[in-house]
Amino acid sequence: MISPRRHFTVPLPDGRALNLGERTLVMGILNITPDSFAGGPPSEARMDSARAIADARQMVRDGADMLDIGGESTRPGAPTVGAEEEWRRVRPVLEGLRGQVDVPISIDTYKASIADQAIALGATIVNDISGFTYDPDLPGVVARTGAAAILMHNRGRSADIYEFANYTDVMGEIARELAARVSAAEAAGVSRERLIIDPGYGFAKRAGHTLEALARLDELAAVGRPILSGPSRKSFLKTPLGDVPPAARLWGTAAAVTASILAGAHIVRVHDVAEMSQVARTADAIRNVK
Q1: Cβ atoms of residues 207 and 167 within 8 Å
Q2: Is 234 in the active site?
Q3: Domain layout of the chain by residue ranges
Q4: Catalytic site residue 61?
């Protein structure tokens, strides 16, 4: 069954807007970290800002509608990174991309100081894995700058992420908790029209929880905000695929992206932009059959 997909317009602080619903937008992942779970270029290569900038430009050529740049790994058990080091990683990439790409840039951070500086360098979206729960100053930065924000469902921190993976009704609880985060963001001064929600596959969720959340993704529409789905290369794919490394999960990711789109996702966040852009176009063609 193909689920309905509402249309939304999410304004950005540079005067542009994300027009969501007519077609699926593809967000390319650019992790400037030495310890990303997802594989890809050798860590020393991606940590080189010139390589990261080249990768970002290639993603845009491959069909990325936006880029998500992050300087801290949030895989389970990952150590935290201080703001100074995180900014050292992402600043040269943000500077290097100014005027080089014409797609919106998202900064993947939960730190207010990083978001503030990134927006000053042209980022227009803040992607917060904590849904505004880790840094109490972040909602104020988003409200003041007019950035859009992605609120992800999560519980706990990366070091203890599975301690909170206890659910009676996975999607019911995700939806209620995300609705509460949307309300809290509004109370902090962030315009509702600038908010996007993400069910947070793998965050405080074991593989079975994530598979169920993906199977029931259409229920998240009840929150009333556009949906981002990020299944790319995640460890839950080992359940159907076996113990294959992240970079070998391309076809599993393609299936999960297709399921996401048919269930109503507006944005898919992916590592393999060229391939997943084809998947998104095909899934949209199926959605659009009258």
Answers
A1: no
A2: yes
A3: 25-287
A4: no
